[in-house]
Structures are given as C-alpha cells and as structure tokens.
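Hey, I was hoping to borrow your eyes for a little while. There's a protein on my desk that I can't quite get my head around. The fold is given in discrete form, as structure tokens running alongside the sequence. I'd be grateful if you could look everything over and explain what you see. Here's the protein in full, and shout if anything looks odd to you:
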Amino acid sequence: MSGKNVIRLFSKDETCSWLFPILFEDEHYIALDKMSHMSVSHSQLHPERPSLSELIRNSIENKARWITKKNINYLGFAYRLDFETSGISLFCKSNEARVAIGDLLGSNQEYREFDCLVHGSPKDDVFNVDSKIGWVAGQPEIMKAGKRGKFASTKFEVLERFAGMTMLRCVPDTDRKHQIRAHLNYVRLSPVGDSSYGGKLLMLSRLKKNYRPRRDGREKPLLDRTSLHYKKLQFDHPFSKEKVTIESELPKDMCVALKYLRKYASGLGLEN
C-alpha cells in the first residue's frame, strides 16, 4: 500500500514535532520520507541531533494514535541514512522482517538510486567509480576512497549540466559508509554543501551577477546541507517475493537550488 499518508512524531518533551510522509507500508515494513538534518539512529558523537529511531520509540512508549491504529509495538531501521541526506528511510515491524531485509541488503540484491548536485563537470555522461573505501584514522565521520578498505562500486549518470555544477544520478552497487560522497570526492566532484568531502554551500550571490544583499549583509545559502537525496529503492519482498518499488520526490530545497541554477547558471540540460 502506498499513498500520501503522513505521521507526526514528537520529541520526548513534546516541544518539537516533525511530519513524515509514508512512502510505502505493508504488514512487515514502513518507509518514511526523511527530511534533511534528521538522523536515523542516535549518534554518540552528536547526541543533540534528533533521530527517527528515538522519535518512533517515544511514540511506541506513549502509545501514539498512529501506533495504536496500526497495531505497532516494534519498528527497527533497515539501514542508516546520513544526517543531511534526505529521502527513503525503511523501518521493519518485527525482528524477523529486519533480519530478512538485512540479509537481502547485505548481499546487494536491491536497487538504490540517489540524486546529487556536485561541483564540477564530468567528462562522460555515464561513468563508474570502482575504488575501495576505508576509514580515516582519528576521523570517525570521514571515509576515504583509494587503495585501502573494502571494495565499492558506484555508477553515475549526468542528469543536467550547469556552469560549474552537475546534477547526477548515483547508483551504488555496494553499500559502504559514505560511499557516494567518498567516491565523488575521489574523482573531484564533491557534493555541493558537503564540507566533509570538499563541497561548498550554494550561495545565490555566486550565481547572480547583480545580487543585492539584505540590509544586514547576511545571506542564507540556497542549500544548507549536503545535496544528496535517496530517490528510489527497489527490491524483491522477502516474504511475498513481489517486486517492491519505493520512490521519494526531490525535496523543496534541492528543487529551489535547481530553479536558480537553471536561471543563472544554465548549461546543457539532459534530463530532470
């Protein structure tokens, strides 16, 4: 079952709430459309960050209306998604379902598709990066692509070209931490807004020639986060064996960024 249903999740003290569209749901799984600046699980390095897992646990403990209506007593995440990455976040309604999807994802039997705005312009419209990804000593939040680590492979396809920037479709064949971001940095196509991997914020003043700043001189970036969006997930259902396709529309902030790029930094548009 899919549709535009939404659920509202509250912080433990109920001073904050977030609205999450439901992208897919059946008796075993539920997929939520995660916004940027939201973790999937609690981070010991950044305990102040809100996380979907904690918000869901609060709902279960407080027997929120949607929890009671759906008769849910457990929701465990199927995989992690970076704090600034938006898009599909899949949760499992039982430990059995979590183990089943974990086996499937662990053997790379699923199809995953991301959209990413990057600095630079690749020579080819379609290219692959096959490079190992490993940890960086003393930097637990940074991964490095190169000759050390675990094998990783990502296919990239140009969706739209701009002056100095490119919109890419990213299809990882393996599942390594920060795989897409590390691979893009490796080929000198850093994701826009991704300071950890060489990216810079997208500012209108850098695009518009006659840009006029606010009276106080401050300027908000068009994108205040890593420009990476989890757009599509496809897999064979572990229980029904049917093909499942889950899709998330490009979020508003990335749509606005593309709007201004098309207006002030237009290039060869291939696809959107």
In short: The mean pLDDT is 92.
